[in-house]
């Protein structure tokens, strides 16, 4: 996995479209949040980790054959808004679906949507000529800043 630090509040990770790399990007995102002063024991770190896992897994499962590299971007705005973007080479936008109780797949987007709704956030997709970026936005994230 390649990492690029654009500034303290913008970090980009690039990984191959492999399910084996999902835990590594989740760990890197959590580490970044902690570096930015997001409280380690808080619900936010867990929530972002889960959202990232679901969105990256979705990109691997549905766009992996079209995508040489999945790009994950994490941004913390001046107003505390946290944005997580997952870019792949498929133009198909994920949509929540009703999975049967026996299904072992198909709940990821619904889980992400429910988590974001709970915190007043949202999920959007930005289409590009070569694919899309799915953005999860969470408002007003608290951060600790040393004086």
TrEMBL record:
<dbReference type="GO" id="GO:0005524">
    <property type="term" value="F:ATP binding"/>
</dbReference>
<keyword id="KW-0067">ATP-binding</keyword>
<dbReference type="GO" id="GO:0004674">
    <property type="term" value="F:protein serine/threonine kinase activity"/>
</dbReference>
<keyword id="KW-0547">Nucleotide-binding</keyword>
<protein>
    <submittedName>
        <fullName>ATP-binding protein</fullName>
    </submittedName>
</protein>
<keyword id="KW-0723">Serine/threonine-protein kinase</keyword>
<feature type="domain" description="Histidine kinase/HSP90-like ATPase">
    <location>
        <begin position="16"/>
        <end position="137"/>
    </location>
</feature>
<dbReference type="Pfam" id="PF13581">
    <property type="entry name" value="HATPase_c_2"/>
</dbReference>
<dbReference type="InterPro" id="IPR036890">
    <property type="entry name" value="HATPase_C_sf"/>
</dbReference>
<dbReference type="InterPro" id="IPR003594">
    <property type="entry name" value="HATPase_dom"/>
</dbReference>
<dbReference type="InterPro" id="IPR050267">
    <property type="entry name" value="Anti-sigma-factor_SerPK"/>
</dbReference>
<keyword id="KW-0808">Transferase</keyword>
<keyword id="KW-0418">Kinase</keyword>
């Amino acid at each position: 996995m390649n990492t690029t630090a654009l500034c303290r509040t913008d970090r980009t990770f690039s990984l191959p479209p492999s399910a084996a790399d999902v835990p590594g990007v989740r760990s890197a995102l959590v580490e970044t949040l902690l570096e930015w002063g997001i409280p380690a024991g808080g619900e936010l770190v867990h929530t972002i980790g889960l959202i990232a896992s679901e969105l990256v897994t979705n990109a691997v499962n549905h766009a992996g054959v079209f995508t040489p590299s999945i790009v994950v971007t994490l941004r913390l705005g001046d107003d505390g808004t946290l944005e997580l973007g997952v870019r792949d080479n498929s133009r198909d936008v994920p949509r929540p679906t009703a999975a049967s109780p026996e299904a072992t797949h198909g709940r990821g987007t619904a889980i992400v949507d429910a988590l974001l709704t709970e915190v007043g956030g949202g999920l959007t997709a930005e289409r590009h000529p070569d694919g899309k970026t799915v953005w999860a936005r969470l408002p007003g994230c608290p951060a600790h800043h040393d004086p």
